[in-house]
Design goal:
Two copies of one chain form a homodimer. Chain A has about 80 residues and is mostly helical. The first copy, chain A, has one domain: Winged helix-like DNA-binding domain superfamily/Winged helix DNA-binding domain (Arc Repressor Mutant, subunit A, Orthogonal Bundle). Chain A contains three helices and two strands. Chain A has a two-stranded antiparallel sheet with strand order 1-2. The N and C termini of chain A lie far apart (about 25 Å). The chains hardly touch. Chain A binds a DNA duplex (21 and 21 nucleotides) through helix 3.
Chain lengths: ~80, ~80
DNA sequence: TGGGATTTGTTCGTATGTATC
DNA sequence: TGATACATACGAACAAATCCC
């Protein structure tokens, strides 16, 4: 999975979809932290603001919760 | 009403509160557009992204609606 | 006790794309 | 066509919280 700037779909939405898929597949596991914002920036070649936007979507969807200074954690599926 | 960067409360929240008060008082009227992002930037000395954040709060609260390419409009109170 | 590294939160600056008038 | 305005996206900087040594 990678980002395509020419696809019309916003980059932050593409990144959110990548993370959703990784959560759904179990690649990102409950009670474990996602890669840090810095790591996501480097891995996907996007800006920090774009990462924040994607994470905000996952928070609104109830997929993750954030602990400031620690990381972004995956909720256990109900 | 003005922004105080030393108050601890995020500037975007302060700006949102200013706009809420102006809506509540009737200074900003239903079906009329808010001042543009650029105007808010100049009037309150904040950044465009901060204005966007404040406006996003008002949207989530159902106080305003956005017409892309036109402006941010105040909902009529129910 | 303290300092450094890491991570998220917030803010500011700038630019481009798209839609409306 | 040009001006206006929101959405998106890049980069940069500092603060706050956390962790480890």
């Amino acid at each position: 999975m990678s980002i395509d700037h020419e696809r019309g779909i916003p980059v932050y939405e593409q990144l959110a979809e990548i993370l959703r898929a990784q959560i759904a597949s179990g690649e990102l596991q409950p009670e474990r932290a996602l890669p840090s914002g810095k790591t996501l920036v480097q891995r996907y070649g996007v800006a920090r603001g774009t990462v924040d936007h994607a994470i905000a979507l996952l928070k609104e969807e109830g997929l993750v919760y954030v602990l400031k200074g620690k990381g972004v954690y995956v909720f256990k599926r109900s």
